Amino acid sequence: MADIKDPENTIIVELKDGPVHIELLPDVAPGHCERMKELARAGAYDGVVFHRVIDGFMAQTGDVEHGKEGGNTSRAGTGGSDKPDLKAEFSGVPHDRGTLGAARSANPDSANSQFFINFGDNHFLNRQYTVYGRVIEGMDHVDKIARGEPPANPDKMISVKVAADA
């Protein structure tokens, strides 16, 4: 493992091409960070597909209800977890390449388990979607995720762990 400064606030997502390390930002979005760690520790993200991947924009995943590989993933992107939706935690942190954003519906307080990783600087999203992490290692693996809405053969998160538990 790379030099991880804060293992309790670092997420390791195992993709087909290798691990992706995500530094969470609990000072910016404590509720979203806590939810991601809670779902990771429960194994809820393991085997969940990337259901919306737009070249030059972002890769979206995290539908723990409908996005599990091996299930009927045709509804992936429409579900969340059995936890309540989160209040928006908008901040001045920009949606730069590699940042993690909370996916939501039109309601700002509807984020739950889904998230996206920005492929580029998507500043039009600033202060409209919660940023709660950033890729610190393995962005080259994120760049290789199969594209599509949904992808014909979607990639998945093989496992998602909190580094402190890995």
From TrEMBL:
PROSITE patterns for this protein: CSA_PPIASE_1, CSA_PPIASE_2
Gene Ontology BP annotations: protein folding
Record field: catalytic activity: [protein]-peptidylproline (omega=180) = [protein]-peptidylproline (omega=0)
Keyword Transferase assigned: no
GO MF, one example: peptidyl-prolyl cis-trans isomerase activity
Residue span(s) of domain PPIase cyclophilin-type: 18-166
InterPro entries in UniProt: Cyclophilin-like_dom_sf, Cyclophilin-type_PPIase, Cyclophilin-type_PPIase_CS, Cyclophilin-type_PPIase_dom, Cyclophilin_A-like
Superkingdom per UniProt: Bacteria
CDD domains: cyclophilin
Gene3D superfamilies xref list: Cyclophilin-like (2.40.100.10)
Keywords per UniProt: Isomerase, Rotamase
EC number(s) reported in the record: 5.2.1.8
Region of interest (Disordered), residue spans: 61-84
Any Pfam family: Pro_isomerase
Keyword Lipid biosynthesis in record: no
Primary role: PPIases accelerate the folding of proteins. It catalyzes the cis-trans isomerization of proline imidic peptide bonds in oligopeptides.
Record family assignment: Belongs to the cyclophilin-type PPIase family.
Protein name in UniProt: Peptidyl-prolyl cis-trans isomerase
